[in-house]
Design goal:
Blueprint (H helix, E strand, L loop, with lengths): L1 H10 L15 H4 L15 H4 L7 H12 L2 H4 L5 H12 L3 H9 L2 H14 L4 H25 L3 H7 L4 H38 L3 E5 L2 E4 L1 H15 L2 H26 L3 H9 L8 H11 L2 H14 L6 H30 L9 H5 L3 H4 L3 H32 L8 H19 L4 H26 L3 H4 L6 H25 L4
Antiparallel strand pairs: 1-2
Helix pairs in contact: 7-16, 7-17, 8-15, 8-17, 8-22, 9-14, 9-15, 9-16, 9-17, 9-22, 9-24, 10-20, 11-12, 11-20, 11-21, 11-22, 12-20, 12-21, 13-17, 13-20, 15-22, 15-24, 16-20, 20-21, 22-24
């Protein structure tokens, strides 16, 4: 967005370029005749109506310098060579963008909002760690797919030669995938249902004391089921992803509008601390960003996008751009929530409460907008999570990875069915969503350890296997994840 502002600011005379250039139109159009310097005026002028409070000398000088240049200087970025290069780079953005779209779901919006509301900027370091860990681990998964032409599940199966070792490892991995994806899917469906509740209100078909059966969760699940079964979800998914991107842009704009305290943000980013009661939220922030099933998904989809080892550079660029943007959006949600809620005593229970942080930009439209955004994010993730579980399970068991395969379908149906059932029984959405992210954060070390093991297989990867520096970074990620996961479990059990 900032890049677009800079480009348009230099290319389009009527475009506002930022605080250093307060003029929204050429000086000559605001005041005076062509070629004269604008003079200070009183009363209501065209400049004041446009919101221009003062024409700075720097802005005027810059304008004259810009208009004095030949036209081709302003539009150099649009030459054929640059357009071709830009198109080429955009075509190479793909698999990692899917990973980012998968973790910018209702779980991220909810967990990041609660983190900011409850602990201010104090947990931003957890997101910074998560972004670094995601880049490191997703790069390994992408390298495995491109170089070895194997999914993570298939590669893991090749590591075991004894029947007992293979059986135990397969059981452990499938348990992690099953538990993690079932929890994640429940959170996805509840997040989408939360959005529909914001738009149409809560609807229950059975109420008895504290127990009720709500319909919006099953509605989301049935839509996801139909799209997956018919195999017609890809076009709709693009629309849903576009809505998620729009929601992300609004959060970024709100963050800028609120002008948060930079020094406090930097402290939250680089001075790790875990306030009392924050342990499960820390695990949730990690689990909502470094999603274990994304490692399986990424290793599979890069094989369709790139066919040669020379494409590793493009794949890494894709990862850096996509994951950093996703991480920045997550941080923006924490920051806007901290400004809006921290220290106010406001409790967050539903989508209307989540929407309060967007009111400075959207006003009365905030609740409807967050409702649409949560619905889109929830449905997108409700499709992606069961698919990833099927790819991972079929890969490690050696089954055919075909959308129409009976075994493939049974796996995603089980995951989706668990999510639909748990979303219908009246569970409170926000605590369940945070718990689902925390469960993934706790299970992350299991998958990460196996990934590191595979990435050191010389026979499988040759010269592209992990080197010592990357093993050290990966090992640190695993150790931190184990430490935080263990503390989360102890915290839930009431030990600490």
């Amino acid at each position: 967005m900032l890049v677009c502002t800079v480009i348009l600011g230099h290319a389009c005379p009527g475009f506002y370029r930022g605080p250093g250039d307060r003029l929204e139109q050429p000086p000559e159009q605001l005041q005076g005749s062509p070629g004269t310097t604008p003079k200070a005026t009183t009363g209501v002028t065209q400049a004041s109506r446009l919101g221009v409070t003062k024409a700075s000398r720097t802005g005027v000088t810059f304008w004259r310098h810009l208009t004095a240049q030949p036209p081709h200087r302003h539009f150099a970025i649009f030459t054929n060579g640059n357009i071709t290069n830009m198109k080429s780079r955009l075509r190479n953005i793909g698999p990692a963008a899917l990973v980012t779209a998968a973790f910018i779901g209702p779980g991220t919006v909810t967990t990041c909002t609660l983190a900011g509301a409850g602990f201010g900027y104090a947990l931003l370091w957890a997101l910074l760690f998560s972004v670094i860990a995601t880049i490191v681990l997703q790069e390994m998964a992408a390298r495995l797919g491109i170089v070895a032409r194997k999914g993570l599940g298939e590669a893991l199966k090749m590591q075991f030669h004894s029947g007992v070792g293979r059986a135990l490892s397969v059981l452990l991995i499938l348990s992690a995938i099953g538990i993690g994806n079932a929890a994640y899917e429940t959170g996805n469906i509840l997040g989408g249902a939360l959005g529909l509740e914001a738009l149409f209100g809560e609807v229950s078909v059975f109420n008895s004391g504290d127990f009720s059966i709500r319909i919006w969760g099953p509605v989301i699940g049935i839509i996801a089921f139909a799209l997956l079964f018919l195999g017609s979800y890809k076009k709709l998914e693009k629309v849903l992803v576009a809505l998620v991107i729009l929601m992300s842009i609004i959060f970024l704009a709100t963050m800028v509008f609120l002008a948060p305290h930079l020094a406090e943000i930097l402290k939250g980013l680089f001075v790790p601390q875990i306030p009392k009661g924050a342990m499960l939220t820390v695990a949730g922030l990690i689990g909502t960003t470094v999603v274990p099933y994304n490692l399986f998904l990424h290793a599979a989809v890069v094989q369709e996008k790139w066919k040669d080892k020379k494409d590793l550079k493009a794949a890494r660029r894709d990862i850096w751009i996509s994951i950093l943007l996703g991480g920045f959006v997550s941080m923006a949600i924490v920051i806007t929530s901290a400004v809006a809620f921290f220290g106010t005593g406001i409790d967050i229970h539903n989508a209307a409460d989540l929407a309060l942080q967007l009111e400075p930009v959207l006003g009365n439209w905030a609740t409807g907008f967050i409702g649409v955004g949560l619905f889109a994010a929830g449905l997108t993730s409700a499709i992606t999570a069961p698919l990833a579980a099927s790819y991972a399970t079929c890969g490690i068991l050696g089954w055919k990875k075909d959308l129409k395969s009976k075994r493939f379908r049974i796996i995603w149906m089980v995951i989706l069915g668990i999510g639909i059932t748990l979303s219908a029984v009246g569970l409170k959405p926000l605590p369940v969503i945070v718990f689902a992210q925390a469960a993934n954060g706790i299970l992350l070390p299991i998958i990460a350890i196996y990934l590191l093991w595979v990435m050191n297989d010389k026979k499988l990867l040759g010269e592209h296997r992990n080197r010592l520096p990357l093993n050290i970074i990966g090992g640190l990620v695993v150790l931190v994840a184990i430490f935080l996961g263990a503390r989360s479990i102890l915290s839930v059990c009431g030990v600490i």
